[in-house]
Amino acid sequence: MQQQYEPVEARTAGRPTRILVVDDDPTVAEVVAGYLDRAGHLVDRADDGPTALTRADAHRPDLVVLDLMLPGMDGLEVCRRLRARGPVPVVMLTARGDEEDRILGLEVGADDYVTKPFSPRELVLRVESVLRRTRPQAASPAPPIGAAGLTVDPAARRATKHGAELALTLREFDLLSFFLRHPGRAFGREDLMREVWGWDFGDLSTVTVHVRRLRGKVEDDPARPRLIQTVWGVGYRFGTGAGETS
């Protein structure tokens, strides 16, 4: 039977986070693993897709750094299978820089995308940015918030639509939470990247893809979004269902 993963926040209290690095280039894998190890993480390595899935089942990772171009089973398929097991965060690492490839990685559930050649220090910062959003908050957790039939519980990392649980990725949950906390206010993609992702730079298509994926899960008709509205020339805003822009 296929193993299911627990949420990261349920497993990381009181121990270092475990990261699985999947890359068939031994030099890249060694550099990435070395930087992550020095940053205090436990690191497992795999050089192909089947091995990555086996390692993930043997030692459940808190995050996966995943190369897109792998022998036998590509990173997109590995990501799909990892996501089917549970909400493990994934950072895609690849030599492909085309927007279509970036979007494919995000569409199958990757939380971030870093293109080779890359700065190992930047990769560590991206990894830790993703991990921070999986850890329980030390301060009193924010109370549940909701509007238009949607509710998010930050403490439980749980989102529902009319009482039915939504299967959201880490970034989708954070994006929906942000929109619900700021109803009616328009935000540019740069604003969302800074406020939700915590980055002062990055590929803005990441925001576009996550908005599209989130619409697919919260809108009654994603082709005619009424909740997450496009504000032309600005970005997006969360309405109460009366809007019409796409």
TrEMBL record:
Keywords from the named record: DNA-binding, Phosphoprotein, Transcription, Transcription regulation, Two-component regulatory system
PROSITE patterns, alphabetized: OMPR_PHOB, RESPONSE_REGULATORY
DNA-binding region: 142-240
Modified residues (4-aspartylphosphate): D67
Every Response regulatory domain range: 18-131
Coiled coil stretches, renumbered: none
Pfam families linked: Response_reg (PF00072), Trans_reg_C (PF00486)
Protein name: DNA-binding response regulator
Top-level taxonomy: Bacteria, Bacillati, Actinomycetota, Actinomycetes, Kitasatosporales
